[in-house]
Amino acid sequence: MEEKIKSPWPGPAGLIPVTSGRADDANVINRHYLDHLMVEMRVIDSVEPDLTTEILGRKFSSPIMMPAFSHLNKVGKDGRKPMQAYAKAAKEMNLLNWVGMEPDSEYAAIADVGAPTVRIIKPFADHDIIRKQIAFAEAHGAFAVGIDVDHIAGRDGHFDIVDGQPLATVTSCDLKRYAESTPLPFIAKGVLSVADAVKAKDAGCKAIVVSHHHGRIPFGVPPTFILPDIKRALAGSGVAVFVDCGIDSGYDAYKALALGADAVAVGRGILSPLLKEGKDGVVKKVRRMNEQLKEMMMYTGIADTYSFDPTVIHHS
Ligand SMILES: Cc1cc2nc3c(=O)[nH]c(=O)nc-3n(C[C@H](O)[C@H](O)[C@H](O)COP(=O)(O)O)c2cc1C
């Protein structure tokens, strides 16, 4: 029997994923890996860095993005809407906002906040739902759309069912059809191999998120471990490569960016400030992360977000 793990976050048990601490937990492997990446120092001639960056053709104030969260409005106390709160933080700070599985009405309310927003749709077995949600996102001014292709298996070895909706594999053909069906950039979220990265590129995805979706796959390799291989495989393709999982500080963000990420997304790292203080908590958290990121860039002689260099990173 699976032992119960106490959630550090408020809300109904099971709604917000918790890192178990067990050996098979990819979150644990990821944290260990990130913490064992060391950074050499290149300070002579260093300057104060500029964090502004271009993501899929638009300028943002930082390569740190909001996470593709979902369901959080159900845990918002006193009618608070955490999904809108972090979208407001994105708008205030000029960051790229992401939204995960939300019904159209909730998606519209989040999009109405006015931050450039990526809608990540579940790999529903019913392709009609996917097509309708893509069209709805287009009509509501989405910045990009995509599918979290990694959310297929449930813990029982069958296709997962979320909110009563059966999920299914996204084939290369499906991905191509979805990418071709929309004028928006299409994103495959949950890529953790060169094989899937190349399939996403061949299907016409404009970006991938190298991620194991907070440890969906047991014993999953850390995204930053597989990232350099994926970057090599996609070199010259123009496909943007984003990374998430375990990005909790500007130092974590720096390591992923140095290893080749075009941008990174925070995840559960913003949950506590978000649920406790709403938008202001998220702004504070990301400001601190930006400071840490700039600090590391100064120590390594990286002047801007286009000049990261993987040779500063060493493995202990
Ligand atoms: C409450 C919650 C809801 C999430 N919902 C979605 C979702 O609907 N779609 C999706 O692609 N990812 C979803 N994610 C995963 C995040 O987008 C991201 O991949 C993950 O949290 C990164 O790992 P980290 O939390 O260790 O940073 C969710 C994460 C959390 C914590």
Fold and architecture overview:
It contains ten helices and 14 strands. With 316 residues, the protein is α/β, with parallel strands linked by helices. The chain has one domain: TIM Barrel, CATH 3.20.20.70. The strands form four sheets. Strands 4-13-12-11-10-7-6-5 form an eight-stranded parallel beta sheet. The longest helix has 21 residues. The protein is globular. Bound molecules: flavin mononucleotide (FMN).
Kindly provide the radius of gyration, computed on alpha-carbon positions and rounded to a whole number of angstroms. Answer: 19 Å
Strand content: 15-25%
**What ions, cofactors and ligands are bound?**
flavin mononucleotide
CATH topology-level fold name: TIM Barrel
Low-confidence spans: pLDDT under 50, at least 5 residues?
none
| Lateral arrangement of strands in the main beta sheet | 4-13-12-11-10-7-6-5
Helices, by number, come to 10
| Proportion of residues in helical segments | 25-40%
What is the 3D form?
A: globular
Count structural domains: 1
Mind describing the biggest β-sheet?
Answer: 8 strands, parallel
**CATH class, please?**
Alpha Beta
CATH hierarchy: architecture: Alpha-Beta Barrel
Which characteristics define this entry?
single chain, alpha/beta, TIM Barrel, two-stranded antiparallel ribbon, binds flavin mononucleotide, 316 residues
Summary, kept brief:
Its cofactor is FMN. The protein has 316 residues and is of the alpha/beta class.
